[in-house]
Amino acid sequence: MATCSFRASQRFCLLLVLVLCSLSQACKKVKLKVQSTLDPGVLIAKVNVADCLNSDHLIVRSNDPDFIVGNDGSLFARHSISMSSGKRTLTLSLEDAITGVEKQLTVKLKHKNKEHKTHKTRIAREALLRRTKRRWAPQPVSMMENSLGPFPMLVQQIQSDTQQNFTILYSIAGAGVDQYPTGIFFIVPQTGEIKATRAVDREEFPEFKMIGYAKTADGYSPESPLTFVIKIEDDNDNAPKFTEESFCASLYEHSKAGTIVGRVNATDRDEAGTIHTLIKYSIISQFPVSPRLFAINGDTGIVTVTSQNTDRELTNEYVLLIKAQDMGGQPYSLSCTGTMTITIEDINDCAPTFTATSYQGEVNENEIDVEVLCIPIKDDDQVNTPNWRANFSIVQGNEDGKFQIVTNPETNEGCLRVVKPLNYEEKNRYQLQVGVTNEVPLISKSGTKTNVKNTVPVTVLVRDVDEGPEFMPVIWYARIKEGLPVGTLIYTCSAKDPETKTSDGISYKKVTDPSSWVTISSTCQITTSKILDRESSEVTKGTYNVTVLATDQSGKTGTGTLVITVDDVNDNVPNITNTEPHMCLIGKRSITIEANDLDDVPNSAPLKFSLDDSSSPDLQRKWRITQLDGTSMTLEDIANQPVGAYEVPINIVDQQGKGQTHKVPVDICDCPDGINCPGSIGRRAAGDAFLGPLGILTLILPALLLGLLLCLLLSCFCGGDAAGGKHSNKGFPDDLAQQNLIVSNTEAPGEEVMDANFKVPIHITNANVSGQAPSGSGTFGHGVKTGGQQTTGLLMNGQQNMETIRTGHQTMEMLRSGHQSTGSTRGGHYLLDPGKYSYAEWQNFMQAHLGEKVYHCGQDEELQRTDDYILPYNYEGRGSAAGSVGCCSDIQGEDERIEFSKTLEPKFRTLADICTKK
Question: Nearest to residue 635, comparing CAs of 647, 618, 617?
């Protein structure tokens, strides 16, 4: 898009021409004949607004809210309007966006059938006298595009009056039937109904021209072929599109409010002249965000500046995100977005200034055409333009013309030279006043041109020739880019003996070089010994000073100073300096991220932030970035992701596009107050990050020791002497019943829950009923409840008092839980054989320990249960020769089983004594 810029004189001439043209044209009333009903979105008429006000930047508005008018005079109804009253008047306001000229245009709408009322009687009478016309005539046929059906869908019906006398068969031909695109329409021969087989896109096929035929079965045609058109009615199915991917414009800084910047344009494929193509423009956002400086005309797309505060030295480019909506910007409209890049052009609004308050140089007497010193200046205007280039002059102190100052075109410095010999004995000090201006006049923000000249005092000292070696001049200036390789020549200095006027026999060395950046050769060539870094702490305001000492053969010395201006290169990438630690699942859904770049302008801020979705295409659907300013942004979770730790790749680049992708860690946590995270995720993440081999070993060792202790306990209590058939006094009954081992989840002393599937052997149940015990077995007495399940205690031959029972139970409880218990027998006496415990005692004591053993040692390397540890056991009878074959079997000898007790520590010896066979 071509940029639009007008000088003040051009704008004035254009304004004068437009005003004269507008005054020479008169706005006449416009009369329009319309239908009885005005449908919304349908073009009523197009008013020729150019006759009233001819302008390329015309803005047209309607004072009647029931009507919408485009800038080209296209008139639409906002909703259905009845013209039953016969006529209606509205006023259109016309305004030139540039000159501000306004005019009014009156439009009168009149029902077109209103004039024919007087002829109704005559028309009706003539209709009675004339023969009724046949229906075999062109019919208005239309079909809405993108129709949803159902298909086949009736579009229209054609009929001939001759079907009263003949059997008529109808047929059609043409586009959409037997011509491209074929198969869209067909006709029912017997009825003449035209039907559509599918939806049609108006933008591809706006209409179909067809020919209809009416014939009898034997081919006779009582009617001539009928030509008709099926028009496809428009639907708002196309969004506007900008004519360019990105519009470009330029604007002089400090331009007045209302100055036109440029114009955007969008097109719509929908039917022209309808509300579907009535486009409204708006500005969505501006970068940099603040201050808001631009506005757009919603109807014309003309962008203007709203403030005079455009400053190129602060921001030289703005990017506008612009939206175009059809339907006149209604809420249900379709839209698209585009960008306009506005470049701020430079004017000479920054005066050149000196970098120091005074300057001083030295020169030997009787020397001419030598450079005393070069005076640097600062000018923020665009480099290498007349607004930046400096003109130096000696305002005062050079009345005899001994000095001259010229501008160095490369550095824009003013170099002071001696053009006539100086005599030390006559005058050894000169006080000069040096002034500087630009090549073009300075322009203030108000637009006024000035010739202000900044001045600075310069002292020139004349040196006596009887002194030691002298540098000419004493201060040298060099400009070099940072990052150049080692060995780059910076400056070649020279010192001369005042007597011989030569440099013979003079040696050079450094006096000051804070960072040891340079090396001085015997010929006073100063080269780099290290790579210069402008961001070094030794560089002050972009300059680095090196002092050189020159010594002649007699030992006399002279010094010179090299002022190195280190120019910045883009050798640093933006880095994140601060980021908020978390966002909340409910509440604060975004975090702020700040970054900086150590380089100088224009290699640093404003920075640009974007999501790097190269590795994750759906990243844009999960996160959203909003730029706050040139160094910060907000990251927002837009997908309502669950609690957890995430890494979001964010690409940060400087003005030159240099940067890198940073993986920003983000914790989404459940915040109690919607703002602050409790920190559990962060602590957990920190713990996980620093869990090394020692930490893992610390977690594993307690589990191994616990498993070893459980196996040790089970080896003590899991059985007697299998070989001899003898049982320990503390042993447990053999497989008394068909029962599975049960894993208990009870972790505290209390009633255990017995498996509901436990079945009492039949012969024991019978013994309980009859009151007699089988030979070699105990008798069942009163029931004992354990954990709410009814079980049966075992009564052994012989009598035992209750104290013995309680003592035995207390021993089991002490072994199981480490504290005394009063027992769990309820509802009757309970007798035990001295060598046996009841099944309830066995379950209460061993169930929890067996469950832990099954859990810890009943898993293979893949943490899957091993089936060998949980097996069903059938009742084999008391004293089965096979014994128990489960995991708790103890087939070792008694001495081997208790051998380990000799090495136990004191705290385990009591447990060993209990396990020992008495």
Answer: 647
Q: How many CA atoms lie within 13 A of 759 on its CB side?
A: 8
Count of positions (residues) in the chain: 918
Q: pLDDT by residue (tens digit) across 223-245?
A: 889 999 999 999 999 999 999 99
Tokens for 679, please give them: 């920190």
Q: How far apart are CA 670 and CA 585, in angstroms?
A: 5
Q: In which element (H, E) is residue 9 found? A: helix 8-23
- Sign (positive or negative) of CA dihedral 613, 616, 617, 618: negative
Q: Extract the tokens encoding 578.
A: 């601060």
Indicate the average pLDDT of the chain.
74
The residues, ordered by sequence, that sit 6+ positions from 715 with a Cβ below 8 Å of its Cβ are: 890, 897, 900
pLDDT higher at 376 or 24: 376
Partners of 406 in beta bridges = 415
For 358, half-sphere exposure in the C-beta direction (CA atoms, 13 angstrom radius) is 8
pLDDT tens-place string over residues 393-422? 999 999 999 999 999 999 999 999 999 989
Please, are residues 301 and 275 in contact by the beta-carbon 8 Å criterion? no
Rounded Cα distance between 362 and 146, Å, is 89
Q: Tell me the pLDDT tens digit for each residue of 729-743.
A: 444 444 443 444 444
Using alpha carbons, select from 615, 643, 503, 486 the residue that is nearest to residue 560: 503
Structure tokens, 373: 């010193």
Pair of tokens at residue 368: 């001419």
The answer to whether 565 touches 479, Cβ cutoff 8 Å, is yes
Angstrom distance (rounded) from CA 390 to CA 387: 8
| pLDDT value of position 748 | 43
Asked if residue 212 lies in contact with residue 225, where contact means CB atoms within 8 angstroms, the answer is yes
Predicted confidence (pLDDT) at residue 263 exceeds the cutoff of 90: yes
Q: Give the Å distances, CA to CA, from 660 to 591, 603, 616, 718.
A: 20, 14, 17, 67
**So what's the pLDDT on residue 197?**
94
Look at residue 118 and give its three-state secondary structure: helix
Within 256-352, strands assigned E span 260-263, 266-267, 280-287, 294-296, 302-305, 317-325, 335-345
Please tell me whether residue 865 adopts helix, strand or coil conformation: strand
Residue of 813, 785, 717 whose CA lies nearest to 805:
813
Contact 478, 525 (CB under 8 A): no
Q: How many helices (H) and strands (E) does the chain have?
A: 9, 57
Q: For residues 71 and 56, what is the distance between their CA atoms, to the nearest angstrom?
A: 10
At 123 the three-state DSSP class reads helix
Tokens at 91, concatenated: 């006023």
pTM score: 0.41
Longest dimension (CA), the chain: 150
CA 708 to mean position of chain CA atoms? 54
Beta bridge partners of 783: 792
Query: How open is the CA angle 226-231-235, to the nearest 5 degrees?
Result: 165
3-state secondary structure 162-202: HHHCCCEEEEEEEECCCECCCCCEEECCCCCEEEECCCCCC
pLDDT at 656 over 70: yes
DSSP 42: S
Query: Amino acid identity of 766?
Result: N
DSSP 298: T
**Taking 90 as the threshold, does the pLDDT of residue 199 lie above it?**
yes
Confidence of residue 302 (pLDDT cuts 50, 70, 90): very high
551: left (phi over 0), alpha (psi -120 to 50) or beta: beta
Is a pLDDT exceeding 50 seen at residue 427? Answer: yes
Rounded distance, CA 719 to CA 728, Å?
Answer: 8
Give the whole-angstrom CA distance, residue 305 versus residue 292. Answer: 9
Strand partners, 610: 651
Integer Cα distance of 354 and 371 in angstroms: 19
| CB 60, CB 36: distance < 8 Å | no
